[in-house]
Description:
By secondary structure, the protein is an alpha/beta fold. It is built from 16 helices and eight strands. The protein has helices at residues 8-11, 27-43, 60-65, 89-100, 123-131, 145-155, 162-172, 176-189, 197-203, 212-221, 224-236, 241-263, 268-274, 282-290, 294-311, 319-330, and strands at 2-3, 19-23, 48-53, 77-82, 106-112, 133-136, 159-160, 194-195. The strands form two sheets. Strands 1-6-2-5-4-3 form a six-stranded parallel beta sheet, sandwiched between helices. Strands 7-8 form a two-stranded parallel sheet. Helix 7 (162-172) runs parallel beside helix 9. It is globular and about 70 Å long.
Amino acid sequence: MKLRWDQLSRHATEPLRPVYVIHGDEILLQQEAGDALRQAARKQGYSDRELHHADRGADWNELLASANNLSLFGDRKLLEIRFAGKPDAAAAAALERYAADPSPDTLLVLLLPKLDGTAQKAKWFLACENAGASVQLPQIDAHTLPDWLRTRLHQAGLQMDAEAFTLLCERVEGNLLAAQQEIEKLRLLAPQGALTADMVRSAVGDSARYNVYDVADIALAGDAGKAARMLAGLRAEGESESGLLWAIGKDARTLALLREGLDAGQPLNALMQQCGVWQKRQPLFQRALQRTNSEMARQLVRELLACDLAIKGQSNEQGWDVLLRLTLAIAGRPLLA
Length: 337
């Protein structure tokens, strides 16, 4: 069976299934999912626990054979295996065999990074899902962070005004572990539960982390200020200019091609398919197209060329300066007329 992340807590109050596959890239959510299953397992008599880290070349037959062996005292056992990536061929084959006939006295919990659609159709995954349950952890990005933070603040009994909330979002974006730690700190600092922007400003450090794809999405959404702040954060973290140009430039070229096609009378849906725009990102490009005219599309192409030359040292400009111009142009706020 498939479980949503928000169903796991309620599900854990029921008799547990033999196998669980938890996958997702948010470390905090993976930890919390594992904690929920461990606590439920203890309550249901799984008093013994083994933890293994999946390594290439591991003896999977021996490892999973231990799942069928009771402990010295005959206790039920929780067998937890953590993966750095998707299972290799040997691991996949062993998991598929085990899931076909799991031990009734062992709870097998697999913790993995996010698995793509192809991996979720693999035989080992489907066998484990049929024997137990899979939980895909959500990705808390710039768009979903505010709702996630509101929920966590409410659970902590904290309230804050709009300015304080915006500041908190900016300082913990992309770093859920830091966000949860800051919420715990704020709960100690505000016994009455009311927080102001000054309290957040003095208590919460800037722990925000971004990735290049977040910058591209925020720029397409038209939030120029936030996109510029994220770009500065990535620069401070040591992100390469060429890596950013690849991600941001790809969207700039797509936006320019879409504008050119629309001006030529082509239907938008067909253009989106031709340009390989994923369905979930199509609303972002639709919003960007509303503010991008033909001249702005041509400017995007010029900025792309200027950025490439600057990064290669073939112009007098700095790569980061042109990256900022390009990002702001995508957001509909070009620095050059």
